[in-house]
Amino acid sequence: MALAIEGSGTGIWDRDVISGTIRYSAGWAEILGYARDEISARVEDSYGRVHPDDLAYVQATMQDHFEGRTSVYEVEHRLRCKDGSYKWVLSRGMVISRDEQGRAQRMVGTTADITSTHLMAERLRQTTNLVANLTNKIPGLIFESRRAPDGVARMTYVSSGIGEIFGLTAEDVAISTAAIHDRIHPDDRAMYHASLDASQRDLVSWQCIFRVDLPARGLCWRQIDARPARLPDGDTLWHGLVTDVTERMEMEQQLHDLARLDHLSGLANRRAFLERMEKTWSALMQERHDRVAVMMIDVDHFKSINDRYGHAAGDEVIRHVAAIMCSVLRSSDMTGRMGGEEFAVCLPGLGLEEAGRIGDRLRAEIAETQAWFEDIAISLTVSIGIAPMLPTDRNGEQVLARADKALYAAKQAGRNRLAFAENTD
């Protein structure tokens, strides 16, 4: 047994507690670079080779074993070598003889060189710290997430960015990701889960942009990019990044809104108005609206205003009409500038009679006020054509054509008036 232990690079020691001496094997001395006869047998000398920072711990552990508080003695510590350097060792031992009062008399054990293991552990610790520091410095949340086939998921690693991204801690998601799901905007949850399910099912990249409602910041946009891998037990593991894309999404929304806005009037442009008309027509077809009326509005003699006062004055007239439309119409009504001096209004939930009353009020308000350009007061009137949206219409533009025809009739009848579409079949 001794030969086998020696051959493994482990040294043997035998301590006589009564006399205060220790005998070492040749292999033990070799660990520290000594020949066997160069090692003192005195216990005091053995403690002198222990690193000062480890000495109290080693002595306390030894004393606990002597007094029977532990079944074995086991401790990792540093020993000084012959050349003055230190090695990490693992010492194990056991009292094999006690007197009648239970006091330790003899103890034997082994010492193994674990320096390489400690160096490897230290390098691993440094690498782990480096990775953690890097991931914690990267904007956003770096994560590892594990999801079982039944959909139960947990975060097995998260960087410190989880606080900024979700307003949570690592402990909040270590057992379940439910805390994250609770913060996703209700309108985005179905889409979020559908994209996650598809990634798990097909092992495709998980990409998702969604909104979260954070206690400290309110509504924010988040983007997930992660790659999945199937584990032997059937779970799916993702490694990925969650970033804050609030600024980008808000900018995109602003650009989208600008592309749909008529900059002169501040109303929806022709394209945006027609898109909303199509949605209203679809709602009528699905019986979510029982009736819808549409107006076409045109500024009377607009060319004369431009010719007399200039195009800048004409622009002020357009803004003046748009402002009165916004003040008279309901918040649920849709308004748009169709081009030049022509405007359109969609009135969901109103029939021709109610639309006529609103149209006449709008016409009267414009006729009774003046648009100001510099110090010039410009009087103006509008003509209005009104038509109902019908279930038989093929699309939203068909009703606009009827309202436009009614508008032409109003102009033909003398302007500054409204007219209704004749054919409502």
Question: Can you characterise this structure?
Answer:
The protein is 42% helix and 29% strand. The chain has 15 helices and 17 strands. The chain has a 5-stranded antiparallel beta sheet, with helices on both faces. Strands 7-6-10-9-8 form a 5-stranded antiparallel beta sheet, sandwiched between helices. Strand 1 (10-16) and strand 2 form a beta hairpin. Helix 12 packs across helix 13 (311-328) and helix 13 packs across helix 14 (352-368). The N and C termini lie far apart (108 Å). The mean pLDDT is 90. Residues 73-126 form the PAC domain. Residues 290-423 form the GGDEF domain.
Strand content: 25-35%
Uncertain runs are: none
Widest β-sheet, arrangement of strands: 2-1-5-4-3
Q: What is the helical fraction, as a range of percent? A: 40-55%
The number of distinct β-strands equals 17
* Rg, nearest Å: 43 Å
Derived structural class: alpha+beta
Q: How far apart, in Å, are the first and last alpha carbons? A: 108 Å
Largest sheet: 5 strands, antiparallel
Here the CATH topology of the largest domain equals: Alpha-Beta Plaits
Count of DSSP-assigned helices? 15
- Nearest-integer average pLDDT: 90
CATH-level-4 superfamily name of the largest domain: Reverse transcriptase/Diguanylate cyclase domain
Short description:
The protein is built from 15 helices and 17 strands.
